[in-house]
Amino acid sequence: MKHNAGMKSLNASQIATLLQGRNLVNPRVVVSGNQAIPWQLLNVLDETLPEYRINALNAPKGLPRRDGVTYETSFVGAGMRGSGRLVYTPARLSMVPLLFGTTRAPDVLLLHTSAPRNGKVSLGVEVNILPAAIEAAQKRGALILAQANSRMPYTFGDGEYDVDVFDGVLEVDEFLPALPPREAPAAGSTDARGDSAAQIGALVAGRIRDGATMQLGIGEVPDAVLLGLTRLKNLGVWSEMFSDGVLALDAAGALDPSRKIISSFAFGSQALYDWIHENDRIVMLRTEKTNDPAQIAQQPGMTSVNTALQIDLFGQANASRIGARIFSGFGGQTDFIVGASHAPGGQAIMALRSWHPKAQVSTIVGMLGEPTTSFQPTAVVTEQGVAEIFGYDEKRQAAMLIEHAAHPNAREHLWYEARRLGLT
User: Fold this and answer.
1) Which one, out of 13, 246, 265, 368, has a CA that is 20 to 30 A from the CA of 330?
2) Longest dimension (CA), the chain
3) Which SUPFAM superfamilies match (predicted)?
């Protein structure tokens, strides 16, 4: 890796010495989250500090799990889920950056960046809430460390920084975690879950027209939706994250080449990372912009597609908790439902299977027994059909959910619940 003027390139031992010199006592360590954890930097810190608080969004498995390490987050990932040392701070994703200037001020930042390019590095596939963390750290003189990886894509936008921003840089050459490319199952598959995903995807895609702006996540249902969008033209992308589905849309000629692809983080295959690298069609912005409902509302035909664990007959969705225990968090669901609902020609779609195959329970319920994550989508889509929600009175909403979205095995009980709740 070629060194750049102003870059403080250090080895692991020197990074440890730098940490020790700060005399840190149980510091808050903000780390690049999702699939961009700077593992080598984190390992050095873990071996150096007896105790610390690690703050990361949607952290994957592999985080240190020992006495002295506390987890903090506003969106729980597999690496923190179920831990007795988890401290969860509820916040919509658009508002998480505000925490760094108030109740969650950072003492140390561990960032995963690209290799230097003309005196700058990029936060690559994970911009997200990190610019706000960097600004908060600079204001209070916190330690800012980078793991500069020659394999991290260089992306343009809010994640570009001069190398002299960092107090120390650990240079590495390692592949990012990647998903193998996959295709959504076709309708008629012998796999029931795959078949239902394909059915949901086809129903959602059928509601979308040429020129729409898309927000989609990752998983079987979003992949199936994207597969159905390849027939369209002049689509835009304004999303907090994207994956290989966007690559497929581009290959199919479904994207408007004159519109920038706007996002805040990405996770997918190595092919996706290769495509992202130095691609000026892609602009990675900070969360305060991508998830600002007012900016989302300005996108033509803005269509958000989200999912949930449960939706009740009042149109309320639980996407965060199981048995009152936090499973994930608000994320950007509320931001995008509000923004898309206000956009010209916009719609906010909740897409989910009608039945939990493992728990053997309906995902459409009478009334949530868990805290609400979001409410008032445009429509709810399951493999059973489409329940129109917005603009209808509460009794009609409930009837649509029962007749068009609920699993047949649950409908009799749901009609009972509707009568009990005064929705008939």
Assistant:
1) 246
2) 72
3) NagB/RpiA/CoA transferase-like
CB atoms within 10 A of CB 116: 25
Report the SS3 class of residue 213: strand
Ramachandran category for residue 158: left, alpha or beta (phi over 0 → left; psi -120 to 50 → alpha): alpha
- What sign does the dihedral 348-291-155-111 (CA atoms) show? negative
Strand, helix or coil for residue 324: coil
- What pLDDT is attached to residue 188? 46
DSSP 95: G
Q: Whose structure tokens read 């990012």?
A: 176
The span from the CA of 307 to the CA of 319, in Å, is 7
Q: What per-residue confidence (pLDDT) applies to 79?
A: 96
Cβ-based neighbour number of residue 393 at 10 Å: 9
Nearest-angstrom CA–CA distance, 147 and 38: 6
Q: Are 346 and 293 in contact (CB under 8 A)?
A: no
Output the pLDDT for position 351: 95
Please, are residues 289 and 159 in contact by the beta-carbon 8 Å criterion?
A: no
The rounded distance, in Å, linking the Cα atoms of 174 and 164 is 23
Answering whether pTM is above 0.90, one says yes
Handedness of CA 390, 392, 398, 401 (dihedral sign): negative
pLDDT number for residue 217? 78
**Is-contact 78 61, C-beta < 8 A?**
yes
Distance CA 21, CA 316 (A): 51
Looking only at the bridges linking them, the beta strands covering 325-326 and 261-263 are unpaired
Q: Which helix (H) or strand (E) holds 318?
A: strand 316-318
Q: How far apart are CA 224 and CA 237, in angstroms?
A: 16
In angstroms, the CA 221 to CA 227 distance is 10
CA distance linking residue 261 with residue 243, whole number of Å: 12
Q: What is the pLDDT of residues 197-237, one digit of tens each?
A: 999 999 999 999 999 999 987 788 888 898 889 999 999 99
Residue 67 to residue 65: CA distance in whole angstroms? 7
In the predicted model, residues of the chain with pLDDT beneath 50 are: 184-190
| Active site members | 240
Of 335, 291, 314, 328, which is closest to residue 380 (Cα–Cα)?
314
What are the C-alpha distances in Å from 160 to residues 127, 221, 380? 9, 33, 39
pLDDT score for 1: 52
Helix, coil or strand: residue 355: strand
Cβ atoms < 10 Å from Cβ of 370 = 20
Measured N-to-C along each axis, helices 220-229 and 244-251 cross at an angle, to the nearest 10 degrees, of 10
